Amino acid sequence: MDQPxxxxxxxxxxxxxxxxxxxxxxxxxxLLLAGFGGPEGQDDVIPFLRNVTRGRGIPDERLExxxxxxxxxxxVSPINAQNRALKAAIEEExxxxxxxxxxxxxxxxxxxxxxxxVRDAADAGDHRLLAFATSAYSSFSSxxxxxxxFARVLEETGLSETxxxxxxxxxxxxxxxxxxxxxxxxxxxxxxxxxxVGIAQMRVLFSTHSIPVDDAQRSGPRDTDxxxxxxxxxxxxxxxxxxxxxxxxxxxxxxxxxxELVYQSxxxxxxxxxxEPDICDRIAQLPAEPVEAIAISPIGxxxxxxxxxxxxxxxxxxxxxxxxxxxxxxxxxxxxxxxVAGIVDLVQERIAAVDPADRAAxxxxxxxxxxxxxxxxxxxxxxxxxxxxxIAP
Length: 393
Known about the structure:
By secondary structure, this protein is α/β, with parallel strands linked by helices. It is built from 13 helices and eight strands. The protein has two domains: 30-38 and 77-172 and 336-358, Rossmann fold (3-Layer(aba) Sandwich); 181-329, Rossmann fold. The longest helix is centred in the middle third of the chain and has 21 residues, at 230-250. The chain starts with 29 loop residues before the first strand and ends in a 41-residue tail after the last helix.
């Protein structure tokens, strides 16, 4: 597909010129569900971690330090089963709405790989793809890396001249995502109250994956100042506030419950600054404030994958038990019908090129762009590689 005059490589006609939002309707042949991937047996664990860390030269003995998280669960990450369930739920919702749009699922780091999914789509004659990446926020690892993967796959498969891939906007503040966190947080806080915990002694910890501060500061468009944590931190703070507004609307007696954003799953060297505070460090401080009960909401994650099962359900809950704080980990979106309906809302929004003023957004930061802006979410270590669904670089 010759695109010498386009601003956005590998893009459909509706997005190729680089406008922030699609300006005219676009028919798509298929939906590409893009996931992170995970091992499905003990023999898969180290090869999977090699894929995750490719290009960084990390020896297997260091990878084994992380591998024990997976080995604790039999070497099986739940993420692939969750994406199979999500794919089925999306297909059911598409069919319910009468949308004839096949769903192709591919992962970044484990089978089924994105290259397999794109080849399957092309073999079926589905050349114009709309991608939904299972990561809601803006950063290199949660957005741009997927876009680079799309470009790499199109080049490696030889399909760059015949297949286009657009990407659904970052959905951090779409109501379907935001609302899926509300009920379980409200129920946890109400349960604490029934057990005799006062409002002032409750706390909601909204937890997300930490990333290097340098990467956080480069998240989002370069022409906007989002604060010291970039768009990544600003988006999480905005979503947490929106969730708590909804909790209070459902139960006004909970409106004074305090909340804060914390981080987990740090994996870099001690010399490299990452976003803080770490959730376990923060939990250790809470009894002195005094806090008696916490609801831990994995607001940075869409399903109960390894960072939730290990870092929260194991390490964070153990940290709370050690200091005598009651703790409940609340739900991720998973296949909540509200979340699944929101995904299909986003598909229809992009197909119809809905005006930004008419798009659903639960925070002042949204709706986010259809087409990523220049120099958005740079990888500090590797610079800019070719990427789909955004203006170069």
